[in-house]
Design brief:
- By secondary structure, the protein is an alpha/beta fold.
- It is built from 16 helices and 15 strands.
- The strands form 3 sheets. A 7-stranded mixed beta sheet has the order 4-10-9-8-7-5-6, sandwiched between helices. A 4-stranded mixed beta sheet has the order 1-2-3-13.
- A hairpin with a 4-residue loop joins β2 and β3.
- α4 runs parallel beside α13 and α14 packs parallel to α16.
- The radius of gyration is 21 Å and the shape is globular.
- The two termini are 29 Å apart.
- The structure holds 3-[O-phosphonopyridoxyl]--amino-benzoic acid (PXG).
- 3-[O-phosphonopyridoxyl]--amino-benzoic acid (PXG) binds next to α2, α5 and β14.
Length: 437
């Protein structure tokens, strides 16, 4: 194990750097459902890395595709140039979306996908002669990555308060967390569809003619797994449609099979105008994100002279050949292994194992949908987040990886998990809670 001085040069993201470097958790290899640590322990991956390795680690077909791809075409510029894999993948992704969307715009991360979608929404209205629509509406407790657009519409105070005045003209819907009515809901909670009507209140304040888009995570992940109340997303959709506001679903974690369907839009039967995707699109193996676009949005851009650039936006690595190779292989694997069906068929087991934690010390809520779970612990007096962090560390010592956000532990295992491994994850968490001060 390197000593702490060897670790100083990497300023780690979203990490208590000094605390981590005193007792580092180093992962040196991974295969299937397991990580291996630098002290040669096996860790059962309860989080698919960071919600991304949906087909399991070091998936041989994806690894081979990346290796072969690197040998064939290392890089190709995406501005006024192209390469075949990027087009092939775009077509496959459109197909993968059930042709709900007609185009994809590539980015390299979820944060970039979000900022791209927001810019697309603003430009869409302007192109159509509705340039007064400049406001963006997010939601309290939302997480949309770390770009200035994403943190502006996002609703997690710590991700915002350090960074100045952010984007102007942003407002927020209330979050949907309602433990008084919905604690220990299995799947979609019953109460709270009316919270979508808050959009009407915001519109009344600003006027619809000033609002470009509403962005929400269909299931909020980073804030601690908030499942949308029954009927909520449909109500948001109806209001947006009625008032000419674009609806963006941020599917960075809900996409690529997490709920047992290709996307949350399929699960809930509610369609956004734009959808942001990342993480599982390449099984987490190469950074990639994408914005999926409905035809009416895309077509609005395709009106001017054909020699004119339609959208002044893009990244050096948009549609990077290695990411495309990884994504194509990931789609093949998802398809051929029936990974999403497996996720769907394990969801009930996952739900009952997770809810068996009800009654353990300090457990104040359990939430779940598909292969996403959240277990919320009561905060220690005057120390929000401390009990959750302690639980996370103890779980890791006992050989399972979970995510912690505040005092909520989140589970989002690779879709290849089996029932016995689900049991191990939940049983181990239960043991951790039994001993946790
Ligand atoms: N949107 C959503 C909904 C996300 O969950 C992003 C955008 C940003 O993606 P990138 O690729 O830029 O990180 C995310 C990322 C957690 C956790 O602990 C979740 C994310 C990232 C880091 C931690 O739940 N999601």
């Amino acid at each position: 194990m390197p000593d702490s001085t060897d670790l100083s040069a990497w300023w780690m993201p979203f990490t208590a750097n000094r605390n981590f470097k005193e007792a580092p958790r180093l992962l040196v290899s991974a295969k299937g459902m397991f990580y291996r640590t630098s002290d040669d322990r096996e860790i059962l991956d309860g989080t698919a890395g960071l919600w991304c390795v949906n087909a399991g680690h070091s998936q041989p077909r994806i690894t081979a595709a990346i290796r072969d791809g690197a040998e064939r075409l290392d890089y190709a510029p995406p501005f006024q140039m192209g390469h075949p894999l990027a087009f092939e993948l775009a077509e496959r992704l459109v197909e993968f979306s059930g042709r709900k969307f007609s185009q994809v715009f590539y980015t390299n991360s979820g944060s970039e996908a979000v900022d791209t979608a927001l810019k697309m929404a603003l430009a869409y209205h302007r192109i159509r002669g509705e340039g007064t629509r400049t406001r963006l509406i997010g939601r309290e407790r939302g997480y949309h990555g770390v770009g200035f657009g994403g943190i502006s519409v996002g609703g997690m105070a710590n991700n915002r308060k350090w960074f100045g005045s952010l984007l102007a003209g942003v407002d927020h819907l209330p979050h949907t967390h309602d433990p008084a009515r919905n604690a220990f809901s299995k799947g979609v909670p019953i109460h709270g569809a009316e919270l979508a009507d808050e959009l009407e209140r915001i519109v009344a304040l600003h006027d619809a003619s000033t609002i470009a888009a509403v962005i929400v995570e269909p299931v909020a992940g980073s804030t601690g797994v908030l499942v949308p109340p029954e009927g909520y997303l449909k109500r948001l959709r109806d209001i947006c449609t009625r008032l000419g506001i674009l609806l963006v679903f941020d599917e960075v974690i809900t996409g690529c099979g997490r709920l047992g369907t290709p996307f949350a839009t399929d699960y809930f039967g509610v369609e956004p105008d734009l959808m942001t995707v990342a993480k599982g699109i390449t099984n987490g193996c190469v950074p990639m994100g994408a914005v999926f676009v409905k035809p009416h949005v895309h077509d609005a851009f395709m009106q001017g002279p054909s020699a004119a650039i339609e959208f002044f936006h893009g990244y050096t690595y948009s549609g990077h050949p290695l990411a495309c190779a990884a994504a194509l292989a990931a789609l093949d694997v998802y398809d051929e292994t029936g990974a999403f069906r497996q996720a769907a068929s394990l969801a009930a087991t996952f739900e009952s194992e997770l809810h068996a934690l009800r009654g353990k010390p300090n457990v104040i809520d359990v939430r779940n949908i598909g292969l996403v779970g959240g277990v919320e612990l009561a905060a220690r007096e005057g120390q929000p987040g401390a009990r959750g962090m302690d639980a996370f560390k103890r779980a890791y010592e006992r050989g399972i990886m979970v995510r912690v956000t505040g005092d909520t532990l989140a589970l989002s295992p690779p879709l290849i998990i089996d029932a016995a491994q689900i049991h191990t994850l939940c049983e181990t968490l239960g043991e951790v809670f039994d001993d946790l001060p």
